[in-house]
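Hi again,

Forgot to attach this to my earlier email, sorry! This is the prediction with 2'-deoxycytidine-5'-monophosphate bound. I've pasted everything inline since the attachment limit keeps bouncing my files.
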Amino acid sequence: MARNKKHLVIAIDGPAGSGKSTVSKRIAKALNILYIDTGAMYRALTLKAVRKNIDLESADLLTGLAHSTRIDLKEGPAGLRVLLDGEDVSSLIRSPELTNNVKYIAKVPGVREEMVKLQRAIGERSGAVLEGRDIGTVVFPDADYKFYLDADADERARRRYEELRQAGEKVNFEDIKKDVIERDESDMKRSVGALKKASDAILVDTTDLSIDGVVEKLLAYIKK
Ligand code: DC
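Structure tokens for the complex follow:
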């Protein structure tokens, strides 16, 4: 069904470390609309699956889990909070171990169907900036603006490394780089909701740009 175009929907896709999250938050703030971190939703469901010891290779069990789980995104004073069945799991879902397990959940078609439904419902209610992998291709192919952010693998790994170090994680650069490259591969190769630039998305290479530079560039397109 066609979307009611009353509200502004902006799709921002790209690989890990491309600058999507920071930029999406800033764009949402500048336009005074909701920010939806779709990766956080896949992460939250992964946390529940791991906690419940569910077989990560069982598509049926994972689909059932997606149906019986409540995931909410709430704006708080400290930024976006991720609620898993009412529990704030915002920090827990960022650990490297958890991050490496998301791929099992993200490749299950039944899980993606449920997540996409939820993302569309939240986005349509009031308009939003949605960041992820399949926003411009699957979730909102008719978004008002679509961007695809990318950067060199080395630069993306460096950004992830700094982010994790600042969060107090003990990390090794080469391990992070390997994880980032493996995650991109698995994101690009899955049969549903793969990471892909929509043909009508605007490609922005952020390798040599500051966050301010990327935000300015995107806002210039939106305000044109
Ligand atoms: O953006 P992120 O690093 O928090 O995303 C975590 C993982 O979730 C990522 O490796 C792939 C998956 N993901 C997805 O499959 N589809 C999305 N729309 C967003 C994230």
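The first strand starts at residue 9 and ends at 13. Residues 16, 38-39, 42-43, 102, 106, 132-134, 183, 187, 193 surround 2'-deoxycytidine-5'-monophosphate (CB under 6 Å).

That should be everything now.

G.
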